[in-house]
Structures are given as C-alpha cells and as structure tokens.
C-alpha cells in the first residue's frame, strides 16, 4: 500500500465490532445452552480463528454478514477435535481457549503462526498448572504449540504479575470447571469484558477494586449452566483509534465515529487525546450488552506532548503505536513508561514503533518499558516494515497522511487480523 499526505478528512463512519468482545461472545456462546446471536461481529482473521476452533470441537456456528449464530451445547458440550486447533495470529484465542480446554475431558493441541508461536505462554501455564491443569509447551520453550490433557481443577487465588486480560480471562474460564472459588488479582485493572459478559451469561462472577489503590480482583465459581444471549458488539475503540488520530492530525478534518465502545478499561486513548490538546467529544452515550457506547467526534487540533505511565497503560496498550504517531506530530516530548508488555505483542512494539518512526525522521528513543518521542518535526515518507503486525500497518498508514512524500506500507494486508475493511473506511473520508 502506498500513501501520501492529504487534507480535509470529513465524514461519518462506523468501525467493525470490538475484537475482544467478539472473541468472548463466540467462546461463551459455545459454552452456553441454546443459540447465542451476535450482531456487528468482527469478521477479522483473529475472531475467525476462534470460530474455527469451536467448530472443530463440534459447535455449529453460522455466519451471515456481520451476524453470527452460535449453537452452544452447554459447559460440558465440547467434543474432542480431530486435528490440532489452529489459533492463527491470535493471542486472545490461545490464552482464553487454554483456560477452557484445561477443564475438558479430552486432549487437545493448539498451535498458531510464527508470531503467535513465539509469544510467551508461561503466564498462563503457571496459574493453570497451579489449578491442577495438564498444560505444557510442546517444544519445552513456554510457547505454543500447547498440549492440554484432562486434569482435576481446583480454585486458586492468583496474584498476577502482569495486568493482562488474557491471563485473567484464562484463569477465570478454567475457574468455571474448578471446585471452589477462583480469583485473580492484577496490579492494575485490565479490560473487563470477560467479567461483564460472563455475568450476562449467568456465571457467578464478582469484581472488586482496592480502595485508593490500583489493584483489581475478579473471582468466579463453577455453575450448572451458562445461558445463551443476544449481543450487539460495540465498535472497536482500538480500530476507531486510527481515525481519531487521523481526525486530530490531518489538517481541516472533522470525523464522527459512531457506536464505539468506551468501556473505561479500554478508553485510555480518549483521556490521552484530551491531555494532548485534542478536540474530541462524546455524543449519544448509551449502553449495549452491558458495555458503554458513544459516538466520537474529532476535529483537527494542535497537539502537545504528554507523559503516559502507570495504571492507564493497560487501558490503551493496543493504541500505543498510534499514540506514538500522534506524539511524533505533537509539539514537545512524550514519555511512555510502564509499557514493557509492548515487547510481547504481535511484534516487539517498542522496536517496531521506534524503528519505523526513526525511518520517518522522528527523533525517538526506545527504552526498556516504553519510549521517549521528541515531537514537532515534519515526518518524511518512508518504507514501513510492519513485520505483519496489523497495528503497525494501520498506525503508520495514518502517519503517512501527514508525512512529506510517499510512504510504502509493506505487507499492508496484515490489517485483516483486526480490521479487514480499514482502507475502505479510510476512502469514505476522502
Ligand atoms: C486482549 C487483551 C490484551 C490486548 C489484546 C486483546 C483481550 O492483551 O493487547 O489485543 O481480548 O483480552 P493482554 O491481556 O495480554 O494485555
């Protein structure tokens, strides 16, 4: 994909359904009795991997445009797959499904692409093993492929060293098959879609927040049944983020992004845009499937640098690539700290973000847990090495719109992982 600078992005758009919520709706629907209807589902490659895994375990799932019908067979209705489950590029599929598989009475192996098979799985192997699961890394390197055999699960309390919704959710899902209570405390609250949605499906799940601190605990007990739901998935704020940035950065722009999920455990980018001086407002706030939703209106703004650190990090972890692009265009310096988790995403995003920003002429320093970005100088067109990371492709496509000269995004098709129609949405604004 080749892109160059433009002005005047104008219009009203919607973005595809939230990736995290789409995954969970299929998983919990498969474990519930009856048909779960999911509307505005994200047809991205990651969520299709989740569908594929459950089809391989005997769950009938019908797709019609962006609606998905999951014919769940109850908590104990999955059957042994005849092949290795293919989790593709999806960390969410891998880690959440592992919690579910730990509670089954059959053996499974799951494996993904090269990027997925190099991401750390010890973070789930450790707590699931403590619960009594039989889960191991086939190559003995604490990465996928993972082999999971039946085990007797019992509830534990787990103090997670990382604020990760994937780790938390994996443990809570195993907790549905464990005796007693299973609880997870995280150092800062990560996205809470599992807690909100499992409650809607009828699971006995509770969340508490440490008064005056940042630690958060979620706990669950096993139950007889989950009950099928009708879910309309809100627009993905992580996808909206690229158009929020485009609206703020491209001169003479005004963009309305309709029906975006603004759950506070995901909406850190909105706070940061405001702190950077962005003209951004929320309209028509309402709730859908237990999740807060709004339209987001953005207008071109003069941005300034900021410091991003601490408990806000898990609420914007996937948006750091595009926030870094905004920081490069902003006046002054932006410091991003406490974000070492960036190193274990689809790529090492401290490296992929800073390498590509440097290629565009930005003065940026990678650090052990983030980066320091000196903003304000004009970006120059460059060749962007996405390393097949969807968020790098999209973030630098927006950078291209304000850079001098042409920018070439290598392997831009990787946007299919979370936003197959990304470049079509963009065209609606021209
Ligand atoms: C996700 C959680 C986050 C996020 C990922 C989706 C989820 O990962 O980066 O894209 O759906 O639970 P961690 O929980 O590992 O931070």
Beta-strand content bin: 25-35%
Which fold does the CATH topology of the largest domain refer to? UDP-n-acetylglucosamine1-carboxyvinyl-transferase, Chain
Rg, alpha carbons: 21 Å
Low-confidence stretches: none
Instruction: Using the 3D structure, state the CATH architecture of the largest domain.
Output: Alpha-beta prism
Total strands: the figure is 23
Mean pLDDT: 97
What is the count of helical runs?
Answer: 12
Question: What's the CATH C level of the largest domain?
Answer: Alpha Beta
Structural class by helix and strand composition: alpha/beta
- Tally of distinct domains: 2
Largest sheet: 4 strands, mixed
End-to-end distance? 16 Å
CATH homologous superfamily identity of the largest domain: Enolpyruvate transferase domain
* Strand order in space, largest sheet: 2-15-17-16
Report on the architecture of this protein:
This protein has 430 residues and is α/β, with parallel strands linked by helices. It contains twelve helices and 23 strands. The radius of gyration is 21 Å and the shape is globular. A four-stranded mixed β-sheet has the order 2-15-17-16. A four-stranded mixed β-sheet has the order 4-5-3-14, covered by helices on one side. A four-stranded mixed β-sheet has the order 6-7-9-8. Helix 1 packs parallel to helix 6 (193-200). Bound molecules: shikimate-3-phosphate. Shikimate-3-phosphate (S3P) is lined by residues 20, 92, 164-166, 169, 190-191, 317-318, 341. Shikimate-3-phosphate (S3P) binds at residues 20, 92, 164-166, 169, 190-191, 317-318, 341.
């Amino acid at each position: 994909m080749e892109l160059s600078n433009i002005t005047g992005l104008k219009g009203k758009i919607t973005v595809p359904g939230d990736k995290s919520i789409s995954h969970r709706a299929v998983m919990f629907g498969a474990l519930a009795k009856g048909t779960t209807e999911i509307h505005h589902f994200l047809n991205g490659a990651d969520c299709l991997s989740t569908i594929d895994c459950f089809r391989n375990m005997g769950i009938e799932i019908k797709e019609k445009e962006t609606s998905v019908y999951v014919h769940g067979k109850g908590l104990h209705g999955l059957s042994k797959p005849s092949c290795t489950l293919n989790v593709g590029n999806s960390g969410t599929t891998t880690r959440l499904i592992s919690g579910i598989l730990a509670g089954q009475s059959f053996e499974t192996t799951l494996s993904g692409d090269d990027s997925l098979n190099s991401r750390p799985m010890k973070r789930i192997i450790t707590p699931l093993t403590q619960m009594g699961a039989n889960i191991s890394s086939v190559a003995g390197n604490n990465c996928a492929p993972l082999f999971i055999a039946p085990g007797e699960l019992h509830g534990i309390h787990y103090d997670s060293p990382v604020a990760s919704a994937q780790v938390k959710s994996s443990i809570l899902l195993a907790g549905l098959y464990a005796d007693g209570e299973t609880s997870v405390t995280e150092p800062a609250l990560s996205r809470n879609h599992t807690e909100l949605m499992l409650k809607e499906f009828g699971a006995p799940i509770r969340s508490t927040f440490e008064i005056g601190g940042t630690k958060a605990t979620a706990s669950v007990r096993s139950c007889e049944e989950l009950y099928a739901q009708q879910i309309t998935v809100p627009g993905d704020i992580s996808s909206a983020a690229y158009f929020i940035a485009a609206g703020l950065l491209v001169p003479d722009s005004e963009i309305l992004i309709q029906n975006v999920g603004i759950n506070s455990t995901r909406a850190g980018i909105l706070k940061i845009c405001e702190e950077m001086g962005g003209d951004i407002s929320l309209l028509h706030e309402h709730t859908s499937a237990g999740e807060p939703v709004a339209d987001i209106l953005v207008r071109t703004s003069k941005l300034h640098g900021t410091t991003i650190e601490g408990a806000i990090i898990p609420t914007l972890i996937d948006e750091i690539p595009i926030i870094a692009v905004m920081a490069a265009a902003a006046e002054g310096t932006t410091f991003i700290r406490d974000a070492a988790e960036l190193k274990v995403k689809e790529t090492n995003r401290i490296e992929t973000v800073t390498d590509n920003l440097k290629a565009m002429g930005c003065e940026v320093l990678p650090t052990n847990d983030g980066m320091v970005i000196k903003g304000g100088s004009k970006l120059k067109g460059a060749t962007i090495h996405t390393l097949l990371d969807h968020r790098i492709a999209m973030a630098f496509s927006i950078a291209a719109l304000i850079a001098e000269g042409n920018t070439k995004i290598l392997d831009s098709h990787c946007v299919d992982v979370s936003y197959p129609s990304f470049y079509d949405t963009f065209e609606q604004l021209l």
